[in-house]
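$ run holo --ligand "zinc ion" --emit tokens
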Amino acid sequence: MEKPGFKIGSGYDVHRLVPGRKLIIGGVNISFDRGLMGHSDADVLIHAVCDAILGAVGLGDIGDHFPDTDPGYKGISSMVLLEECGALMEKQGYGIVNMDCIVFAQAPKISPHKKKIKENIAGVLNIDSNLVNVKATTTEKLGFIGKEHGICAQCTILVKTIPQKI
Ligand code: CDP
Ligand code: ZN
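-- output --
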């Protein structure tokens, strides 16, 4: 079967907000009185991006590649996982066309950090930061996000075949 020229992927992740942890979103350490709980640095946005990349190239999800039962991944920067997902995608012969991400958080404000988040993601994946769009929304104080029990993130990505290096 011929390899499709373009493929899409989607990623979604949720982490609980707890006291005593740093809040890291898109590789930015955001000043806040709570942080996200998790085995790694719990960067919910980067986990959604990783899952979108893996999904686009048909490689399952982040837990398949970096199990949270593995002590080697404890406290690890999710940017390292993102870099590995990018490499796995390239190995499959694909590169990123663009991605669109959403952070769902009642607080804190994400907009002041969007530029840096875009640059962080683009930097690790070696792409132009214009190919990375980051949006944020509250849930109008509704549900677990609105009550500030957790933060979630979503990412949609388009990839295309890249010429193979010989
Ligand atoms: O309905 P809409 O998403 O426009 O309203 P909102 O949830 O109150 O968010 C208003 C704007 O604030 C969004 O468009 C985001 O740009 C920004 N925002 C943010 O920077 N950080 C958040 N945690 C939530 C929203
Ligand atoms: Zn996660």
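-- notes --
The first helix runs from residue 44 to 56.
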